[in-house]
UniProtKB/TrEMBL annotation:
A motif (GyrA-box) lies at residues 526-532. It is found in: Cytoplasm. GO terms for molecular function: ATP binding; DNA binding; DNA negative supercoiling activity. This is DNA gyrase subunit A. Its EC number is 5.6.2.2. Few gyrases are as efficient as E.coli at forming negative supercoils. Not all organisms have 2 type II topoisomerases; in organisms with a single type II topoisomerase this enzyme also has to decatenate newly replicated chromosomes. It catalyses: ATP-dependent breakage, passage and rejoining of double-stranded DNA. Its main location: cytoplasm. A type II topoisomerase that negatively supercoils closed circular double-stranded (ds) DNA in an ATP-dependent manner to modulate DNA topology and maintain chromosomes in an underwound state. Negative supercoiling favors strand separation, and DNA replication, transcription, recombination and repair, all of which involve strand separation. Also able to catalyze the interconversion of other topological isomers of dsDNA rings, including catenanes and knotted rings. Type II topoisomerases break and join 2 DNA strands simultaneously in an ATP-dependent manner. The lineage of its organism: Bacteria, Pseudomonadati, Campylobacterota, Epsilonproteobacteria, Campylobacterales. The active site is at 124 (o-(5'-phospho-dna)-tyrosine intermediate).
Length: 827
C-alpha cells in the first residue's frame, strides 16, 4: 500500500474537504447557471438561451410562427443541456399575460390559463418573439456583449443580453437556488423608465424622490397593494413583505348583496380559490354565502359570490380576505447575480447597474459602428482618389497579367492600401458616371459626420448620457402602459397623530360588530329620567352593546373571547353622524373568522407603572404589566388563558394609585379586595380566583378598580334603577371569598345587575338602552344610597344595556331650569 502511495498511483484525500468543495461547486453552478437572474438583463440562463435560439431561427416580432418543439429542440441541442419539459415550461411562462408584465414570447395556441390549466404539448403550440423581447436582443450583432462557449464548445452564446429595458424590474423573477432564493415583483414599464430618467439626471436622487416615479410593484393580474412600509423596506434593503388583495365590488340583486371579484392577487389560481371558498362555506367557516359561480370570459375576470338575505357583505368579504388567497403576502427578495456572485440589491442599486450596463453596451456598439464607418470611409476615399486618376488606374490594371498583380501595382504606383486596391479592382465601370461619382462623395461626407459623432460619444460623458436618455424616451413612448395594481395606504404605515386634534369622542360598538366615533359635543345633556336621543341606527336584530368616552389620540385595547389583545388608535375609527351605523370592526382589526371582541379599554400610554387587570365570567382575576402590550403584532397577542367554559367580561388599567379590585355579579353579589392580592403575571397565564359565587347560575357581569374608600360606586340594574354608594361601605374581604350584597333587588329593579362605575359629582353618566338610545345624566341628580338599597330611576321606558361615565359639560340655558321631578327612592 505504501509503495503504491509513494509511486503516486493512489492519492490520499480528505473526504470531508472533498465533499465540501464538490458541494460548493454544485451550489455555485445552480446559483449562477440556473436559478437566479442577472441584474443587468433580468434573465436566467434558460430564458436567455430560449430568446437567443429564437433569434437564430429568425423568430422576431412579425415573423412567421414556428412550432414550440422546434425551438425547444434547438435550445436543448445547442445551449441548455437539461430536460425539454423544463425548457418548454419556461417558454410557456414567457408567453402568459397573467405571469409576465410584458410578455417575451408571442404564443399561438393553448399556453395555459389563470385557472391553472397546463399548456398544450409543444408539438401543438407555435411561438415567436414579442416586440418587447426584441428590445432585449437589440444590437446583439454589434459585439455589444461577450460571447461564451456553449456547453460542448461547438458554438457561442451571449453571456448577457444587451437589453434596452430593465427587464429584471419590469417582469420580475422568482427562483430557489441552494441556500438562497429570489422573489422580485414585476413593475410598470412607464414608472420604471421615468425612474431611470430621474436617476440619470440626478445620480444622488433619494429613495423617496425616486418613489415619486416608481410607486410600487405592478402585477399583471392587477389587485390592490395595502400599505407602503413593505414597499419601502424592499426598495431600501432588498427585502420586504407586501399585502396584495383581490379587487372586488358589491352589486345589488334584489334585497341581497353580490360580491364580484374583478382581479386576483398575483399567481393565485382562480379555480383553486373558488374550490377553497366553496369548501369553507360547506364547512361553515364562512357564513352568509348562498352561491358561487365563475362568469369570467375573454373580456375579463368575474367571479360572483351571492350572499344570503340580510348578510353583511363587508363581514363576508373580510372573512374571505383572511381565510382565502383573496389576500396574499408577497415576500420581496431582490436577489440577483452580479459578476458571477449573488447579491441582494435595493431599487436604486438595480437601476444604477442597468444604467452602467447601458453605458457599456452603447460604448461597445459605438466602437463597432465607428470601426465599420472608418473601414467604409477608407474604401470610399480610395475610390474617390481612383476616379480622379482613372485613366492611369485603368492603364495600370490593363498592363497587369492577373487580378493579384493589378492590386500590387495599384498599391506600389499610387500608394493605395490593399483594401482600397481590392475595392478598385472590383469596381464596375458603371460607377464612373457623374451621378455615381456624386453618390460616392455624398456617402463619404455623411460617413465623416457619423465618425465625428461616434467619436464624440466616446469622448464625452454628457453626450453618452444624452444617448441613453434618448433611448429611455423612445422606450417610454413605445411601451407606455397604465398601472394595473392599485395602491392603498395601510393606516399602520402612516403616523398622522400630530395632524389630528385631541378631542373627546364617544365610541359605540353594536352587538353585530359595527363601530364608530362621534364627537362628545353631539350629545346634548338631559335631566334624569329623560327619553334620550338616538345614538345609532341599527338593524332590527342589532343593538348597541358597548360604548365609552375617550380622546382621539388614545389607544383602544381590544380583548377577544380567545384571550387575544389587539390595539387601535381612536382616530383610526371612522367618524360618523349620531345616527350612522358605523363600520364593521372586523375590517379594522386582524381578527380570526369567529373571534369576538369581549372588552375594549382606552389608554393614553403603555407605562411600566401600570397594569392591565382581566376579569372573567367565572370569577377569575389576572394582572399583567401594561408594558407587555406595547408592541402588538398584526394578529394580536395572547393576553389571558381562558378555561373552556369561561369568557372575558372586562379589563381595566390600574396604576400605582389603585388599592382595591371590585367585582359585581349578575345576581347582585359583590366583593372588594386589595389589588396586591393578585401578583403580576405574564401574558400567557390563567390568573387566580377573584370571587366565589353563592348562587347557582350566577356569573360576573362587571368589575372595576378603586383608588380609595372615598370614591363612589354607581351600580345600575336592568330596568334603569341605579344608586351611588361610597366604596367604603363595601366591606374589605379576602380574594376568592363570597363578598356582600351589592344592591337590594326588587320587581322594579329587575332580576339582574347591568354594571358598575366609579363616579363622582364632577362627571356625567351615559346609559345606552336596548332600543339604541343614549341618555346623558348629571351625576348630581342621582342620590347617594347605602349598600343594601335599590336606588332611583335613571332611565325610564327601556332596558339598560350598558353604562359609561363621561366628562361634565357646561349646562345650556335650557338645562339651567330647576329639575322639579321627584327622585323616586326605592328604599
Amino acid at each position: 500500500m505504501s509503495n503504491l502511495l509513494n509511486n503516486g498511483d493512489i492519492q490520499s484525500i480528505n473526504i470531508e474537504e472533498t465533499l465540501q468543495n464538490s458541494y460548493l461547486d454544485y451550489s455555485m453552478s445552480v446559483i449562477v447557471g440556473r436559478a437566479l437572474p442577472d441584474v443587468r438583463d433580468g434573465l436566467k440562463p434558460v430564458h436567455r438561451r430560449i430568446l437567443y435560439a429564437m433569434d437564430k431561427l429568425n423568430l422576431s416580432f412579425g415573423a412567421k410562427y414556428k412550432k414550440s418543439a422546434r425551438i425547444v429542440g434547438d435550445v436543448i441541442g445547442q445551449y441548455h443541456p437539461h430536460g425539454d419539459t423544463a425548457v418548454y415550461d419556461a417558454l410557456v411562462r414567457m408567453a402568459q399575460d397573467f405571469s409576465m408584465r410584458m410578455e417575451l414570447v408571442d404564443g399561438q395556441g393553448n399556453f395555459g390559463s389563470v385557472d391553472g390549466d397546463s399548456a398544450a404539448a409543444m408539438r401543438y403550440t407555435e411561438a415567436r418573439m414579442t416586440k418587447y423581447a426584441g428590445e432585449l436582443l437589440k444590437d446583439l450583432e454589434k459585439n455589444t456583449v461577450n460571447m461564451i462557449d456553449n456547453y460542448d464548445g461547438t458554438t457561442k452564446e451571449p453571456d448577457v443580453m444587451p437589453t434596452r429595458v430593465p427587464n429584471l424590474l419590469i417582469n420580475g423573477s422568482s427562483g430557489i437556488a441552494v441556500g438562497m432564493a429570489t422573489n422580485i415583483p414585476p413593475h410598470n414599464p412607464t414608472e420604471i423608465m421615468n425612474g431611470l430618467k430621474a436617476l440619470l439626471e440626478n445620480p444622488n436622487i433619494t429613495l423617496t424622490e425616486i418613489m415619486e416615479h416608481i410607486k410600487a410593484p405592478d402585477f399583471p393580474t392587477g389587485g390592490i397593494i395595502f400599505g407602503k412600509k413593505g414597499i419601502m423596506d424592499a426598495y431600501e434593503t432588498g427585502r420586504g413583505r407586501i399585502k396584495v388583495r383581490a379587487k372586488t365590488h358589491i352589486e345589488k340583486k334584489g334585497n341581497k348583496d353580490v360580491i364580484v371579484i374583478d382581479e386576483l392577487p398575483y399567481q393565485v389560481n382562480k379555480a383553486r380559490l373558488i374550490e377553497n371558498v366553496a369548501n369553507l362555506v360547506k364547512d361553515k367557516m364562512i357564513d352568509g354565502v348562498s352561491e358561487i359561480r365563475d362568469e369570467s370570459d375573454r373580456d375579463g375576470m368575474r367571479v360572483v359570490i351571492e350572499l344570503k338575505r340580510d348578510t353583511i357583505s363587508e363581514i363576508v368579504l373580510n372573512n374571505l380576505f383572511k381565510q382565502t388567497a383573496m389576500q396574499t403576502t408577497f415576500g420581496i427578495i431582490m436577489l440577483s447575480i452580479l459578476n458571477q456572485e449573488p447579491r441582494i440589491f435595493g431599487l436604486i442599486d438595480i437601476l444604477k447597474h442597468f444604467i452602467n450596463h447601458r453605458k457599456t453596451i452603447i460604448i461597445r456598439r459605438t466602437i463597432f459602428d465607428l470601426e465599420k464607418a472608418k473601414a467604409r470611409a477608407h474604401i470610399l476615399e480610395g475610390l474617390k482618389k481612383a476616379i480622379d486618376i482613372i485613366d492611369k488606374v485603368i492603364r495600370t490594371i490593363r498592363a497587369s497579367t492577373n487580378e493579384e498583380e493589378a492590386k500590387e501595382n495599384l498599391v506600389t504606383e499610387f500608394d493605395f492600401s490593399e483594401i482600397q486596391a481590392a475595392s478598385i479592382v472590383a469596381m464596375r465601370l458603371g460607377r464612373l458616371t457623374g451621378l455615381e461619382i456624386e453618390k460616392i462623395e455624398n456617402e463619404l461626407a455623411e460617413l465623416m459626420k457619423q465618425i465625428e459623432f461616434l467619436e464624440s460619444i466616446l469622448q464625452s460623458e454628457k453626450v453618452l448620457h444624452g444617448i441613453i436618455g434618448d433611448e429611455f424616451d423612445e422606450i417610454l413612448q413605445t411601451y407606455t402602459t397604465k398601472r394595473r395594481t392599485d395602491i392603498e395606504d395601510d393606516y399602520d404605515d402612516i403616523d398622522i397623530e400630530d395632524l389630528i386634534p385631541n378631542e373627546p369622542m364617544v365610541v359605540t360598538i353594536t352587538h353585530r360588530g359595527y363601530i364608530k366615533r362621534v364627537p362628545l359635543a353631539s350629545y346634548e345633556k338631559q335631566k334624569r329620567g329623560g327619553k334620550g336621543k338616538t345614538a345609532v341606527t341599527t338593524y332590527e336584530d342589532d343593538f348597541i352593546e358597548n360604548f365609552f368616552t375617550c380622546n382621539t389620540h388614545d389607544t383602544l385595547l381590544f380583548v377577544t373571547d380567545r384571550g387575544q389583545l389587539h390595539w387601535l388608535k381612536v382616530y383610526r375609527i371612522p367618524e360618523g353622524s349620531r345616527t350612522a351605523k358605523g363600520k364593521a370592526v372586523v375590517n379594522l382589526l386582524n381578527l380570526m373568522a369567529d373571534e369576538q371582541i369581549q372588552s375594549i379599554i382606552p389608554t393614553t400610554d403603555f407605562s411600566e407603572e401600570k397594569s392591565l387587570v382581566f376579569f372573567t365570567k367565572n370569577g377569575i382575576v389576572k394582572r399583567t404589566n401594561l408594558s407587555e402590550f406595547s408592541n402588538i403584532r398584526s394578529n394580536g397577542v395572547r393576553a389571558i388563558v381562558l378555561d373552556e367554559d369561561d369568557a372575558l367580561i372586562t379589563a381595566k388599567i390600574a396604576d400605582k394609585s389603585i388599592k382595591y379590585l371590585f367585582i359585581v355579579t349578575k345576581l347582585a353579589q359583590c366583593i372588594k379586595f386589595e389589588i396586591e392580592k393578585t401578583r403580576e403575571q405574564g401574558r400567557s397565564t390563567r390568573g387566580v380566583r377573584g370571587i366565589k359565587f353563592k348562587h347557582k347560575g350566577d356569573e360576573v357581569v362587571d368589575a372595576n378598580i378603586i383608588a380609595s374608600d372615598d370614591q363612589e360606586i354607581l351600580i345600575v340594574a336592568e330596568k334603569g334603577i341605579g344608586k351611588r354608594t361610597d366604596a367604603g361601605e363595601y366591606r374589605l374581604t379576602n380574594r376568592g371569598g363570597s363578598g356582600v350584597i351589592a344592591m337590594k333587588m326588587t320587581a322594579k329593579t329587575g332580576k339582574h345587575i347591568v354594571g358598575c362605575l366609579m363616579v363622582d359629582e364632577g362627571m356625567d353618566m351615559m346609559a345606552l338602552t336596548k332600543a339604541g338610545k343614549m341618555i346623558r345624566v348629571d351625576m348630581q341628580t342621582i342620590s347617594k344610597s347605602s349598600r343594601n338599597t335599590s336606588g332611583v330611576y335613571i332611565v325610564k321606558g327601556d332596558e339598560v344595556v350598558s353604562i359609561s361615565r363621561c366628562p361634565k359639560e357646561e349646562k345650556s340655558e335650557d338645562d339651567e331650569e330647576e329639575d322639579t321631578s321627584p327622585s323616586l327612592d326605592l328604599e
